[in-house]
């Protein structure tokens, strides 16, 4: 098999599967609407017309999917961005197909909008299912050591070691860590935390070729920009991908900025982190639209959980705790009780299933996150939102520095970026970076994506104790 086929085999297979799946969905959408139209005696153009337009539509659909990165399987797109891209692709598919359907005004040549709607819904669901399955397969292959990218880290300091730890503890990312490259190689020794120091980078191209490096991470804070550009050139000479690691909170804060000028001097305008009034209204509206039916539907389940808690251990069914909400307001957070009645409510939260403070049924509730269900009432009351940073206890907030208090600029939430990115498997200091990213990049679509990603996180019990 030639190099082209080796590097594009997965993409071509995925493209072929998409063409087949979209063609089937197109035909079945016509069949579905025809069945309804027949019942109500409404006319619909013959299926042959829809099949006649199918080749042109397939070209348009594939172009839309390619634009939204659905064939960039070699890119390590986060699951969050993947869901966002799929939702955007589904919406654009709807727009372009409706536009195509209305190119002609002749009734006998028109495609019915009522056929296009179920097709686009089905196409979006198919994309989510197929890409999720592909991600699962790729993750398992990478964990088995198949298809790994050989990587090196430039910089063996704290930032570089954090990157190394992430690569080592998450094989599904898909990297085989070859070692560190650091100008202090002679002083550092042969290994750092069991990872080889393979060179000082003085002859970087030769080093990259010698160790067959495919990707390099630059993890050196405050490196001179000319030195960094030299590294980029050397990596390009060795046909090696080059990535720069975000290594401090300033880069998170300035992740999305505007550039202005004062005379000839460029200046950075930090984006306002607080929600606009319109954004806050939209967020609250979505909370109510989703929470009201969800709360009503979950009442029988919550009643059953309450009975099980009473049968399992002595004490109240609910655990009510002071937490700090948006703008520093104190509210009563409600959860199902999962710990013994003698446990200190302000002690360190359980970090393992074997924690003796957790009751037998409490372990199940924490593992499935069902202990959080009563917080739907907090959302209805306006104390919290469905999505946002997790609310902290008052004594923790009292220790916040001014920049940490920015977490309180938005409504606190039941779920958020930190939870779906690994939840309690991640250290607390990562939580702040995720929270700042959420605050700076908030949109209704981001909330929807986080809610969608919360479903598999809860079902799989990732990081829950």
Structural commentary:
With 465 residues, the chain is an alpha/beta fold. The chain folds into 3 domains: 3-143, no CATH class; 149-247, Rossmann fold (3-Layer(aba) Sandwich); 277-460, no CATH class. Helix content is 52%, strand content 13%. The protein has 16 helices and 12 strands. The protein has helices at 3-39, 47-67, 79-101, 113-143, 158-169, 185-188, 204-210, 225-237, 249-253, 277-312, 360-368, 375-381, 394-397, 417-420, 428-440, 444-460, and strands at 149-154, 175-181, 191-192, 195-199, 215-218, 241-244, 257-262, 265-270, 318-324, 330-336, 385-387, 413-415. The strands form 4 sheets. A 6-stranded mixed β-sheet has the order 3-4-2-1-5-6, sandwiched between helices. Strand 9 (318-324) and strand 10 (330-336) form a beta hairpin. Helix 1 (3-39) packs across helix 2 (47-67) and helix 3 crosses helix 16 (444-460). The longest helix has 37 residues, at 3-39.
């Amino acid at each position: 098999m030639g190099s082209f086929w080796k590097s594009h085999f997965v993409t071509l297979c995925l493209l072929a599967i998409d063409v087949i799946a979209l063609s089937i969905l197109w035909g079945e959408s016509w069949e579905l609407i025809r069945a309804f139209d027949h019942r109500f005696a409404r006319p619909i153009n013959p299926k042959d017309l829809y099949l006649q337009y199918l080749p042109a539509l397939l070209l348009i659909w594939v172009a839309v999917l390619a634009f939204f990165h659905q064939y960039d399987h070699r890119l390590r797109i986060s699951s969050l961005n993947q869901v966002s891209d799929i939702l955007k692709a589904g919406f654009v598919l709807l727009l372009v197909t409706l536009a195509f359907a209305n190119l002609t005004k002749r009734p006998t040549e028109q495609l019915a909008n009522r056929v296009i709607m179920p097709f686009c819904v089905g196409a979006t669901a198919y994309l989510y299912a197929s890409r999720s399955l592909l991600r699962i397969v790729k993750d398992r292959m990478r964990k088995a050591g198949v298809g790994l990218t050989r990587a090196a880290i430039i910089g063996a300091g704290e930032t570089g070691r954090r990157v190394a730890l992430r690569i080592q503890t998450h094989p599904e990312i898909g990297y085989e860590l070859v070692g560190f490259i650091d100008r202090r190689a002679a002083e550092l020794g042969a290994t750092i935390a069991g990872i080889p120091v393979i060179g000082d980078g003085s002859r970087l191209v030769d080093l990259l070729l010698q160790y067959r490096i495919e990707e390099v991470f630059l993890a050196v804070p405050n490196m001179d920009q000319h030195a960094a550009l030299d590294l980029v050139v050397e990596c390009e000479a060795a046909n090696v991908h080059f990535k720069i690691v975000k290594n401090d909170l300033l880069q998170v804060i300035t992740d999305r900025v505007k550039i202005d000028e004062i005379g000839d001097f460029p200046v950075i305008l930090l984006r306002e982190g607080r929600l606009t009034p319109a954004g806050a209204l939209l967020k609250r509206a979505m909370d109510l639209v989703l929470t009201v039916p969800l709360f009503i539907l979950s009442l029988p389940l919550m009643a059953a959980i309450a009975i099980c808690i009473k049968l399992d251990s002595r004490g109240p069914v609910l655990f009510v705790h002071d937490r700090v909400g948006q703008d520093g307001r104190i509210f009563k957070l409600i959860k199902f009780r999962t710990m013994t009645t003698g446990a200190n409510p302000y002690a360190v939260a359980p970090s393992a299933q074997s924690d003796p403070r957790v009751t037998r049924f409490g372990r199940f509730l924490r593992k499935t996150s069902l202990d959080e269900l009563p917080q739907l009432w907090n959302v209805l009351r306006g104390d919290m939102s469905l999505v946002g940073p997790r609310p902290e206890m008052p004594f923790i907030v009292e220790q916040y520095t001014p920049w940490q208090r920015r977490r309180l600029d938005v409504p606190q939430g039941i779920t958020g970026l930190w939870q779906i990115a690994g939840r309690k498997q991640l250290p607390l200091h990562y939580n702040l970076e995720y929270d700042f990213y959420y605050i700076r990049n908030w949109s209704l679509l981001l909330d929807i994506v986080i809610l969608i990603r919360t479903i598999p996180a809860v079902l799989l019990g990732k990081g829950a104790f």
